[in-house]
Amino acid sequence: MRIAEPARDDVLLRQAAKGEEEAFTLLYRRHQAAMYRFALRMTGSPWVAEEIVQDVFMTLMRAPKKYDSSRGTLGGYLYGIARNRVMKHLERLPREVPLEQKNEDGSGAGIVLQDAATPATWAETRERMKQVRAAVLELPAEFREAVVLCELEELSYEEAAQAAGCPIGTIRSRLHRGRALLLAKLEMLRDVPRRASAAR
Amino acid sequence: MKCEEFDAIGLDAERDASLSELERAAAREHASACSRCAALQDSWQAARVELHAFADSTAAAETPARVEMRLRQEFRTQHGTMKTRRLAVIAAWALAAAAVLAGAVSWSNWRKSQQEEAARHLVAPQNLALAAQKRGAKTNDANLENDAHGARQGAANSDSAETLVADNELRNFTLLPGALPAEADDAAIVRVRMQRGALGALGLPVNEERAGEWIQVDLLVGDDGLPQAVRLPQQ
After folding, report:
1. What is the dihedral of CA A111, A99, A43, A88, to 10 degrees?
2. Tens-place pLDDT, residues A48-65
3. On chain B, which terminus has fewer CB atoms closer than 10 Å, C or N?
C-alpha cells in the first residue's frame, strides 16, 4: 500500500503497529536525522549516535502504543527516548571525549566545512570547530543538553523543556550556567594559541 | 534591570518567549548603559556564531543507511512472527468451530435415525402378521389372519394408541419352539398388542378361556424378519 507523504505521525504509527513496513520507514526517515544529530552533538561519537538512533526506533517498533498523541508530538516523544539513552551512555562514560572520529569510509571527522576561502582559513576554521566541539562535549551532561537543544538544534525554550522533560525555568537556568561555562572554555581555548604564539 | 538579572535572562532576551516586551526593553536598555554587560553580550554573540557554525557543520549528518536496513529487517521479523501467531489462533478457532459443527451434524443424524426407528416400530404389527404367516402354521392360516387383523384393530381401538416402545434389554425372552438361539446383534425387539390366542400361532400353549384377552408382547425379531423369542412384559 502506498502512503501519502504528508500523513500525520500518529496515523503512520498506527499503520506501522498493524505491520505496514512502509509507514514505519516513512516515520524513520522523517525523524532519524534529528535524533542522530542530537545524539551526535551530545556524545560526539557517530558510532554511539548510530546505536542510540537504532535503539530509539526499536523501542518505537516494539511498543508503539506507549506513545500518546495527546501528550505531545512524536518528535518530542522520540527526543525523550533518545535523551534517556544519551544520559545512560554519558553516565557510563562520564568524561569520554573522542579525539578523532572516522566516518564509515575511513575519512576524517563528521565536521564538513564548505565555505573556506583559503587553505589557511580552512585550517583555522577547522581548528576552531574542533575547539567548539570539545568545549560543548566537556560541558556537564545537563548543561550540554540545554545548549544542544536550544543553541544547536534551535528549539524554543518550551520545546526544549518538553524534550528534556523539565520546566522551562529549569531549561533557562541550565542554559544560563551552560552558557557561562561554554564562554569560559571558549575564551580559554582561544587564548591558548595566542599565548603560545606570544611565547614564541 | 541589574547586572545579575541581565546575566540570567538578558543575554537571550530576544529569543525567550516567556519574557514580556517590557523585560526585553529593560535588558536592551541595561546593555546600552552597562559596559560590562555589553561586553558579555558581545562575547556571547560571538560564541553563538561559532556554535551555529558548529551546528551547520553537522547539520547534514544523517544516520547511516545500514541502520534503516537493520530496522526494516527487525520490523519484518517481528511482524512476521505476529502474523504467524495470529494465523495459529485463527486456525485453532476454525478447528474448534469445525468440531462443534461435526458434533451438531452427528447429533442431528442420530436423532433422525431414532425417529425412523420409532416409525418402523409403529408398522411392526403388519410385519408380525406376515412373519406369522411365513412361519407356516398351516392349520391356523385363517385364525392367524384374524389374529393379525384383530391385533391391528386392537391397536387402533386401544385407548393407549401411543407408540409402543419395547425395553431394549434382552432378559426374560422365551425362545419360540423351533427357533435356534442365534446372535442377537441384528435382532430387533418389537412391542406389539395382540390377543393371547395369537401366541398359539407362534407355537406357545394358550389358555383357551383367556384366548380373547389383549396383551402386550415383546417379540425378538431376527434379521430374516421372523420372531425368534417372546417376552411378556410385567404390567
Report:
1. 170
2. 999 999 999 999 999 888
3. C
Question: Distance between CA B79 and CA B85 in Å, rounded?
Answer: 10
Distance from B55 to chain A by nearest Cα, in Å? 5
Give the other-Cβ count within 10 Å of B188's Cβ.
18
CA distance A93 to chain B (A): 22
Long-range (24+ apart) CB contacts under 8 A made by A131-134 are A131/A186, A131/A189, A131/A190, A132/A186, A132/B50, A132/B51, A132/B53, A132/B54, A133/A44, A133/B54, A134/A97, A134/A189
Residue B58 grid cell: 553537522
- Would you call B78 and A61 a contact, using CB atoms and an 8 Å cutoff? yes
| Ranges of each domain in chain B | 3-57, 63-119, 123-231
Burial B19-37 (b: 16+ CB within 10 A, else e): beeebeebbeebbeebeeb
Are B197 and B223 in contact, with CB atoms under 8 Å apart? Answer: no
Q: What is the pLDDT of residues B11-35, one digit of tens each?
A: 777 777 777 888 888 888 888 888 8
Tell me how far apart the alpha carbons of residues A29 and B63 are, in angstroms, rounded to a whole number.
9
Q: How many interchain CB pairs under 8 A, A with B?
A: 120
B173-191: pLDDT as tens digits = 888 887 777 666 678 888 8
Ordered by where they begin, the domains of chain A are 6-96 (1.10.1740.10), 110-200 (1.10.10.10)
- Cβ–Cβ under 8 Å, residues A168 and A158: yes
pTM listed for this prediction: 0.55
Q: Answer with the residue of higher pLDDT: B187 or B169.
A: B187
- Pick among A40, A132, A150 to test the B interface (most B CBs inside 10 A): A132
Determine which of B51, B83, B85 to mutate to test the interface with A (most A C-beta atoms within 10 Å): B51
| Residue closest to B226 by CA, chosen among B205, B197, B209, B203 | B203
pLDDT of residue B71: 93
Mean pLDDT for A91-101 is 58
Inter-chain contact A113–B82, Cβ cutoff 8 Å? no
| Residue count (chain B) | 235
Nearest CA in chain A to B11: A176
Q: Smallest Cα–Cα separation from A164: which of A181, A148, A183?
A: A148
Please tell me the total number of residues recorded for chain A in this structure. 200
